[in-house]
Amino acid sequence: MAVDAAPRRRRSTASLPSISIDRRSALPMYDQLRRQILETISDEGLEPGDLLPGELRMCELYGVSRTVVRQALGQLEHDGIITRVKGKGTFVAPQKTTETLASGLAGLFEEVAARGGHVHSEVLRLEREPADERVAQQLRCAPGTVVVALERLRFVDGEPWSLSTTWMPEHIGAHVFGAELAEGSLYALLADRGIRAASGVRSVEASVTDAREGQLLGIGPGKPVLLLRSAMVDAADRPIEYFQALHRGDRTRFEFHLTADDARGPVFLTR
Predict the structure, then answer these.
(1) Cα–Cα distance for residue pair 130/38, rounded to 1 Å
(2) What are the backbone dihedrals phi and psi of residue 133, each rounded to the nearest 5 degrees, phi first?
(3) 3-state secondary structure of 148
(4) Spatial CA neighbour of 62 closest among 37, 90, 99, 27
(5) Strand-pair partners of 205
(6) Residue 207: exposed, middle, or buried by beta-carbon count in 10 A (0-12, 13-18, 19+)?
(7) In terms of pLDDT, which residue wins out, 120 or 269?
(8) Higher pLDDT pick, 138 / 20
């Protein structure tokens, strides 16, 4: 019988390599300290979840004020290198994953699978409902038309990653009832039924979680998320789906691949 490997024990770094802060340098003291912490994380092979020395210990090590330490840590936290947990300490943060979902036809399942990751979906809601004005506009039907709504909490490598709701015309959404979506791709399911996306429009904007969204994503209310919206059509320009997905801002970075001969560049909208 196979024995499961023991979980990795978090490392605690009681001190950082000894350096002297050069008070005559053109580099601000907080930036010197920031660079040193970055070097330590790299040189020591520290991983997400490993504990760094506390603020007071850094003050003692480098003979700098707490203000300098907080400036350095604040910049590292802003850059997504560390995370600070009140009452527990400062930890190496999980690194954001680059995604190209906003600039291609792939779904989250295909995107993560391409880099060797695993996606698990928890279906929160699958039902027929009347289309509101936004959904009706995207699916090109009259408000109140019955559509199929699919809401899923998506996990990447076991961690809550995104919360998405997909609306489909009823004749397309009918294929989803009774289907296995926990470990599979919606796009692959539809493709097996001869329904394939040919083009679409996607947008990304900043948003924050409400109480329910924050609880499901495991980050709490009022936290930053990236809101991805997408409307897809088939080769005959018939609507296939419209979806909205909230991606955790602390785990996701969208990447766009551009070329000089693109017919149209990015379009920036305000509201």
Answers:
(1) 52
(2) -60, -45
(3) strand
(4) 37
(5) 227
(6) middle
(7) 120
(8) 138
Q: How far is CA 138 from the centre of its chain?
A: 24
| Spatial separation of the C-alpha atoms in residues 106 and 108, rounded to whole Å | 7
Query: What predicted TM-score, i.e. pTM, was given to this entire model?
Result: 0.62
The pairing of strands 224-233 and 146-156 is unpaired
The one-letter amino acid code at 237 reads D
* pLDDT tier, 4 (very low <50, low <70, confident <90, very high otherwise): very low
**CA–centroid distance for 222 within its chain:** 16
Q: For all residues of the chain together, what is the average pLDDT?
A: 81
Q: Are 172 and 251 in contact (CB under 8 A)?
A: no
pLDDT digits (tens, 9 = 90+) for 35-75: 888 888 887 888 888 888 888 988 888 889 999 999 999 88
Q: Name the β-bridge partners of 196.
A: none
Q: Which of 207, 241, 213 is nearest to 227 (CA)?
A: 207
Please state, in angstroms and rounded to a whole number, the distance separating the CA atoms of residues 128 and 146: 6
Residue 21 · residue 63 · CB < 8 Å: yes
Residue indicated by tokens 């329910």 = 212
- CA 143, 105, 126, 208 torsion: positive or negative? negative
Residues 207 and 225 sit within 8 Å (Cβ to Cβ):
yes
92, 46 Cβ separation under 8 angstroms: yes
